[in-house]
Design goal:
With 225 residues, the protein is an alpha+beta fold. Helices cover 65% and strands 15% of the residues. The protein contains four helices and six strands. A three-stranded antiparallel sheet has the order 1-4-5. A three-stranded mixed sheet has the order 2-6-3, with no helix packed on it. The longest helix has 48 residues. 4% of the residues are buried.
């Protein structure tokens, strides 16, 4: 009996030793494997690219292009506003010039007519003085000289400003230049369809008709109206 118990002791000791060795091996094995897994996971996570890398190159290029276009739009807007302001100033200046031209365009013509008025006034004064003295012949002579001087001055003023008198006697009838008053029978040396008599002279200003000449036109006797 004692021999069996002695024999069982070493066997139990072996079991305890084996179980202790196994437990030790487990303790050494599992911590090592866990650390290895953690280290490997950390290494893998450090090698993987991060989730948020920021805007890509295409997005950055689009943003830069948008900023550039916005600056161009601002520049064009400023230029457009300046152009509008300049055009408005030019329009106002042009309108002012047109108004001044309308108001003072005949200033030179009026200045020349003032000289004609002076001659007419002096002639009238001389006539009134001579009439009081009773010398009618001298008065008529002065009136004639004054009127002749007045006519010459008027012709000079008209020629200076491009005002031309039309005397269409003998010319063919033109409805654009002549106002027909009546027809008269064609006489000797007068061709039918031509101007036989001028009742009122016409005038042209710089080649443009400003008043038609009132005329009588010659026709054959049977066509007299």
């Amino acid at each position: 009996m004692a021999a069996r118990s002695l024999w069982a002791v070493p066997r139990r000791a072996q079991r305890l030793v084996a179980s202790g060795a196994a437990s030790c091996s487990r303790e050494w094995l599992y911590p090592f494997s866990t650390a290895t897994q953690r280290t490997t996971g950390e290494d893998c996570s450090s090698e993987d690219p991060p989730d948020d890398l920021g805007p890509s190159l295409a997005e950055r290029a689009l943003r830069l292009k948008a900023v550039k276009l916005e600056k161009e739009v601002q520049d064009l807007t400023v230029r457009y506003q300046r152009a509008v302001a300049d055009s408005e100033n030019i329009r106002r200046q042009t309108q002012r010039c047109v108004e001044d031209a309308k108001m003072f365009g005949i200033q030179s013509f009026c200045k020349d007519l003032v000289e004609v008025a002076d001659i007419l006034e002096k002639t009238t004064e001389c006539i009134s003085k001579e009439t009081e003295s009773g010398d009618q012949k001298l008065t008529l002579e002065k009136v004639f000289r004054g009127l002749s001087l007045l006519e010459a001055k008027l012709k000079s003023v008209f020629a200076k400003h491009g005002l031309e008198k039309m005397t269409p006697i003998g010319d063919n009838y033109d409805p654009h230049e002549h106002e027909l008053i009546c027809h008269v029978p064609a006489g000797v040396g007068v061709q039918p369809g031509t101007v036989a008599l001028v009742r009122q002279d016409g005038y042209k200003l710089q080649g443009r008709i400003i008043r038609l000449a009132r005329v009588e036109v010659a026709v054959e006797s049977q066509r007299r109206l």
